[in-house]
Amino acid sequence: MTSQFDALHDRRSTDSLKWHKFSSDVLPMWVADMDFAAPPAVTEALKTRVNHPIYGYTHDLPGLAEAIQVHLTRHFDWQVPGEAIVYLPGVIVGFNLAAQALAKPGGSVVFHTPVYKPFFGVAGNAGLRQVEVEMHQDGHGRYLVDWERFEAAIADLASLFLLCNPHNPVGRVFEQEELARMAEICLRYGVPVVSDEIHSDLIYSGHRHIPIASLSPEIAKNSITLMAPSKTFNVPGLGFSFAVIPDPELRERFNTSRRGIVGWPNLMGMIAARAAYAEGQSWLTELRLYLESNRDILVEYVNTYLPLAKITVPEGTYLAWIDLSAYNLVPTPCEFLIKNARVGLNDGMEFGPTGAGHVRINFACPRSTLLEGLNRIRSALENVTASL
Q1: 117 plus 233 within the same structural domain
Q2: How many domains does the chain have?
Q3: What backbone torsions phi and psi does residue 255 show, to the nearest 5 degrees?
Q4: Domain hosting residue 95, numbered range
Q5: Residue 95 — φ and ψ, nearest 5°?
Q6: Closest by alpha carbon to 123, among 84, 90, 96, 89?
Q7: Which residues, in sequence order, are bridge partners of residue 85?
Q8: Per-residue pLDDT reduced to its tens digit, 113-161
Q9: Among 279, 296, 321, where does a domain finish?
């Protein structure tokens, strides 16, 4: 039942990054880490393994690849051969490895902004140029690709296009036509697509996640897709993700880029992933219902009680992007709300210069926590509105 997500868990005694960043009177609603218990199947699988007191090296965990394949087929109608799956300790590791593998002299990493903070370190790590293509908003606040600037960036000796879909922080779930156009442009200029799809399981009504590599064999051959159970099943601390690389040559280049410094994923992460994908599907169904209700409550609350704020309605992810620039909060909206509302959010500037005046809020928490945070923000901003 979705009521399981209403349970409050004390995380301050668990060395939680989310709950230790700020002082104890600040409500943390920032990093992409849910305040929900992981699926019971995951907890039981971990307990079973922990009961054996030796935690040595492991090999390819039996049944893990098969569980991933079934999950990808069930949710995306995407049939992936087992040999195309490459295990990794994290998605960030994955897109940095991809950049190392695909780098060419004078090349660049192209990505849309605003975007997830680690994207901004990829080019420098690989000795490449960084080319940011700012998205624009339509009359409803929905973020769209600037196609002219995107093609110009891809044509200018790009080594790779780094895609974030579903998009963090603006919550877009790109449609088939958009993905096909991105992929066609990349194919035309011989630029591989590296797609961070870590939030792909968290999609809301009226939208559908389409792995870009699933569009055609030609696009699959030109793609590296990065996924993980970490956001979906709330196991980010267990260090497991995977890449789907159908093309053998591209897969070999990717594996060679490890250069002896990126090892095997965490044993417990692999066990959790297998249990989650194989036995956590009903839990995931309930989670999505709860998150969608939280999303709707958040959007309605902002539109009703924060008259100067503009919220982009998330189509996927459990993260929402809010424009507070009309409140003229100093020194930044994030710092203002930490001080005056005692709520910790992500500063929009973390996602690039276009994030000025914005905050990102994580609504993957019990509903009582969400409402407590929103009420604190409302009180702080009402004081500002009264003085404008």
Answers
A1: yes
A2: 2
A3: -65, -35
A4: 54-279
A5: -75, -25
A6: 96
A7: 244
A8: 999 999 999 999 999 999 999 999 999 899 999 999 999 999 999 999 9
A9: 279
355 CB contacts (<8 Å, ≥6 apart)? 114, 169, 347, 348, 349
Residue 47 domain flag = no
Residue in 35, 38, 46, 47 with CA at minimum distance from that of residue 11: 35
Strand partners, 132: 111
For range 157-184, the mean pLDDT: 98
User: Is there a domain that residue 338 lies in?
Assistant: yes
**Confidence band, pLDDT 50/70/90 cuts, at residue 94:** very high
DSSP type of residue 114 = S
Say if residue 322 is in the same domain as residue 206.
Answer: no
Q: What is the pLDDT of residue 185?
A: 98
pLDDT tens digits, 14-34: 999 999 999 999 999 999 999
Written as six digits, the tokens of 29 are 């609603």
Domain final residue, candidates 211, 245, 279? 279
Query: What is the full DSSP assignment across 268-334?
Result: HHHHHHHHHHHH-HHHHHHHHHHHHHHHHHHHHHHHHH-TT-EEEPPSBSSEEEEE-GGG--SS-HH
Residue 130 CB neighbour total at 10 angstroms:
16
Beta bridge partners of 321: 312, 360
- The CA-CA-CA angle for residues 348, 349, 354, to 5°, reads 85
**Is residue 248 in some structural domain?**
yes
The answer, yes or no, to whether the previous bond of 353 is cis (omega within 30 of 0) is no
Q: What CA–CA distance (Å, rounded) separates 144 from 122?
A: 23
Query: What percent helix, strand, coil does the chain show, rounded to 5?
Result: 45, 15, 40
For 32-66, what is each residue's pLDDT tens digit? 999 999 999 999 999 999 999 999 988 789 999 99
Beta strand segments in 153-217, E: 158-164, 193-196
Rounded CA separation 135/115 (Å)? 10
Integer angstrom CA distances of residue 157 from 42, 110, 128, 161: 44, 10, 10, 11
46 within domain boundaries: no
Length of the chain: 388
Q: Which two tokens stand for residue 134?
A: 């700012």
pLDDT tens-place string over residues 205-237: 999 999 999 999 999 999 999 999 999 999 999
